[in-house]
Prior knowledge:
Helix content is 49%, strand content 13%. The chain has two domains: 21-70 and 149-228, 3-Layer(aba) Sandwich (Rossmann fold); 78-143, no CATH class. By secondary structure, the chain is an alpha/beta fold. It is built from twelve helices and five strands. Helix 1 crosses helix 2 and helix 4 (84-90) packs across helix 5. It is globular, with a radius of gyration of 17 Å. The two termini are 27 Å apart. It has a five-stranded parallel β-sheet with strand order 1-2-3-4-5, sandwiched between helices. Helix 2 links the parallel strand 1 and strand 2.
Amino acid sequence: MPDLLGFGRSPKPSDASYDIACHVARIAPFVTPGSVLVGHSTGALIAAAAAATHADLVRAVVLIGMPAYETAEEAIRAVTRLGWLAKATAENRVVAHWICNAMCRLRPVAKAAAPLFVRNLPAGVAQDGVMHTWPSYSRTLHNVVLGHRPLPDLIAIKQPVTLLYGTRDAESSTEAVGRLTASLERSNSRANVRIVNGDHHLPIRRPELIRQVILDATTGHSELGVEHDS
């Protein structure tokens, strides 16, 4: 699975826009005929847009913990609850720029310290969380998470789509997921919304479930509608 442009081990061009089109263009070479696109969190927003853009190549789509914000204002309110750096970046505070640049200059130290501050994730995942730059982080947050609404992409996708959410997902409230589900039902979308026991990090907490969901999507066994399971 490729890292998103500007994150992890992917290139981090300082002049990139890091908007939805930029990210989709980056992953386009990986979308080959018969692809099943799988995305988590921000990656789910990008996977949905890629599926809508390259519909003729996509077989099915699995979106895990996709931010379900209906408006930019709702997105900002949600993001500001996720942590001090996200809050400061969403509010365009200069201190966020300073801190992010300091983390970049001292990346070995930031990577070593990350597991001490992010204790609810495996050390390797926490360390990957600092593998970005100020342009990639701030522009992706503003242009994709805050600025892009996924509903038109989801409606445009003609292939089966599975949206998977945890009951304790702090990034997409039950109310937000409910509104998204209702909008998809009104549009006759081929979307299956599954709500399962867990938080935002289902790929880490419940890998066997994720494997089965992807397998079901690949074999065409996903059912339309809303499912609640444990």
